[in-house]
Structure formats: structure tokens, C-alpha cells
Amino acid sequence: MVRIAIAGGSGEVAREVIDALVAASDNDDIIIFSQNDMHSQSNNPHGLSWRKVDYNDSNSLVQALRDIHTVLSFIQLLHDPENKSQKNLIDAAILAGVKRFAPSEWGSRGAAAMPWWAGKDDIKEYLKQVNTNKKVLEYTLFQPGLFMNYLATPFKTSSHLTPLNTFIDLKNQRAVMVDGYSNAALVLTTVQDMAAVVARAVHFEGQWPVVGGIRGNRVTISQLLEIGKRVRDGSFTVETVKLHDLEAGRLNTSWTLEARHHSVSTQQETEMLKSVLVGVLVSTVKGGWDVSDEWNQLLPDYKFSGVEEFLEDVPWDAN
């Protein structure tokens, strides 16, 4: 039995992981931290509860973390200026004697060209610092690459994750590619596979790796485009952009992203959608989404969903 605290537990990725944790064990205690009023517990599965916390109150946060074995953080970086909430959570976890901690990663292996995720690198450095003299907190950086579910947009292919389109739009059979980088690789993992790996990692008896890559499928851009053509039974309209234009903030395409993440305000929407597409393109060609495979090696029996098989199950012709 493991006592697990989920910080930022109302988020979409967090809820996918919570579902996997509940399904994986009847014995674990899963405590969801919330800054809002307590949620009704009448319909909660066995072992699942909510606790209201104040990330700026160190004493109460330490108390909330007493007897917790593992903390999984899904704190939304855009809502955590200067990463204070997550740093306070790390400090309190150490004081409370928490064994394991996973910071709010859940994506690429770095924040290069993606300033909205700059806090991730700050938290990585902070975790290094607190363990400088001796290890006081075991941690891993869960990095599944890009959620494969986004390729199925506008169709929802998981319980909680909102469909978001990306630079390969299978529904409309179009793509944006960076000139000269068709062989750049990225990792695609379904959010369900990522959640299932996390549920197994919580009970993993060995040492957690610092870098925790989860590699569902590793493909190049050209390979992904070929898969898209087979799945959609037709050609794609491909627009090519120059890397130097993207690095200068210029996006010369006839279309851009359409669906915004719930954490982005409507006032920020237009500029943010452009920035995200530019950032994902640049970070892809620079290897930011080509994550490692530490958890694949530690959990060799786990079978991941294949990208082509996954996309073939999407009802592309539905309205």
C-alpha cells in the first residue's frame, strides 16, 4: 500500500493518471490536493480523497504531506509565477519525509523554444540543488513526449484530455514542416500509456531514474506524414517554413493551431496559439520531443499502443 498525494489534481493529465492509479490498486490511498473548496467525496472510488491546501502556508503543507510516500505534481506552470507553489511543495515534502517526488513535467525533455514551459527547467535545477549535499528526495522527470491523442483532434480519444491540434493535422490532411528537417524525430505516447506507466512506477521497487523518459513510439516527421497518408488514404497539403523565420517569431503559413488549452485565457489565445506552433516546430527539430526510454527499460513487459494502429481506430469520417 502506497499513500500518494496529487498536486494540481483537477487538471486533465492529472485525472488520467488518477484513473490509472485507482484501476491499478485497491489498497493505495490517493489524496488529491486542491486550492479550492473540498470536492464532494460521495462518489469517489475507494481510497480516493480530496484535501484543501495552501501552497503558501509551509506548516499546513508539511502537515498535509505527513505519511505521504509519493507526490505527483501537476501544478499548472502558467498559474504558478516564479514556481513558488511547486518549490514550496518540494520543501514541504522534504520536511515531511516524503520518499518520492515527480515534478510537473509530462511532456518534452526540455523547454527550449517553449517559454511557457520555462518553469520546468527551473524546477529541475531546484531539485538538483536540494540534493546537492546528500539525497533528501528521490525524484523522476516523467517525459512521455507528445501525447499521441492530439493527432486524433478533433476527436476525443481519452477520458479527460482535451483534443488539441498540432503541426500535422490528420483530420484536414495538412501539415507544417521545417525545411530540411524531415528526419527530425519525436516521441509519441498515448496519455493512457503514460498514465499506466506512472501507476506502475509508483510501485516500482528499485531506484527511480532522475530522467524518466517514456517512449511509446519514436518516429521521424517524414515517417509520421507517411503514416498519416496511409491512415487517411490520401495525400497531405504540406507547407514548409524556414527555421530562421520561426526563430525570429515569424510563422508564414495559411493556418495555425485552433484549439487552445484551458489554462490560456481568451485574451491570450491568438498569440499563444501561434507561439505554441512555432515553439513545438522549433523544439522538435532541436530534439526537444525526442525523449529517452528509461521507463521502457525498467518496465520491459509493458506494451505501448502503436501510432498507426491507434490512428486507424479514429472515426475520421464522422461529422
From TrEMBL:
GO terms, molecular function: oxidoreductase activity
Keyword Oxidoreductase: yes
Alphabetical UniProt keywords: NADP, Oxidoreductase
Organism of derivation: Bombardia bombarda
Protein name: NmrA-like family-domain-containing protein
Superkingdom assignment: Eukaryota
Record-linked Pfam families: NmrA
Family classification: Belongs to the NmrA-type oxidoreductase family. Isoflavone reductase subfamily.
Domain (NmrA-like) ranges: 3-248
